[in-house]
Amino acid sequence: MEPIKINDYRTHKISDSDVITRVLSGEKELYEILLRRNNQKLYRVIRSYVKDTAEIEDIMQNTYLKAYEKLFQFKHNSQFSTWLIRIGINETLARLKTKGKYRNLHTSENSLSKNFVLEIPDKEQLNPEKKMIRQEAKQILEKTIDRLDAKYSTVYVLREVEGMSISEISDCLGLTVSNVKVRLHRAKDMIREELYELSMSADVFEFGFDRCDNIVDKVMNTIK
Q1: Which of 68, 4, 59 is nearest to 35 (CA)?
Q2: Residues of 26-47 as b/e, b for ≥16 C-beta within 10 angstroms?
Q3: H-only helix segments in 25-112
Q4: How many Å apart are CA 211 and CA 213, to the nearest integer?
Q5: Domains of the chain by range and CATH?
Q6: Could you tell me if 50 and 59 are in contact, meaning their C-beta atoms sit under 8 angstroms apart?
Q7: Which of 69, 67, 76 is nearest to 34 (CA)?
Q8: Cβ contact 198:137 at 8 Å
Q9: pLDDT per residue over 103-154, tens digit each?
Q10: What is the pLDDT of residues 4-47, one digit of tens each?
């Protein structure tokens, strides 16, 4: 088989399905590719429900480990990211149930975490003034999304930030297509027009660099 450099996970042509086949055949070190490809998306989804950074990362780790244990159940005619997100959401809801927060999850606004602002590395060389404006804009957008109920913010993030299709979101969340469309429409209505323009940036709720490496190391060390 073709040798794979883990560091090439973003550009390597091997599909998720092929990675899974090879992991199940004994090349479990390749599971890292799936982690790195999906860290950002999984983080953003879980953050729609939970705001504490440490708890989010704990849920992410549990999600990846559970997905690894059940990897043989994955159906290759579907997308791994969709399957993974469903596991992540179930893990999140189970965590909220144990804390007695599930009942109010969809009926009241999520409270804002005092330390919710994320440190997002700049991908471009910007002058200090532009960096400040950019960061302030992200913070405003994140706060606005955080004020939405989880049932709206999750759909909004998956569609407008992650760029997933309506049918993919429907599959992930176990909702009808029409229900997804309604929630997305309401989410947009609750976000001011100027903030909606800012949401086109893929930088919000970023989970990368050291934090990405940290969750990958924890999971890979556990399955070794």
Answers
A1: 68
A2: eeeebbbbbbbbbbbbbbbbbb
A3: 31-47, 53-69, 80-98
A4: 5
A5: 6-223 (1.10.1740.10)
A6: yes
A7: 67
A8: yes
A9: 444 333 333 333 333 333 444 555 666 666 666 767 777 888 888 889 999 9
A10: 655 554 546 789 999 999 999 999 999 999 999 999 999 999 99
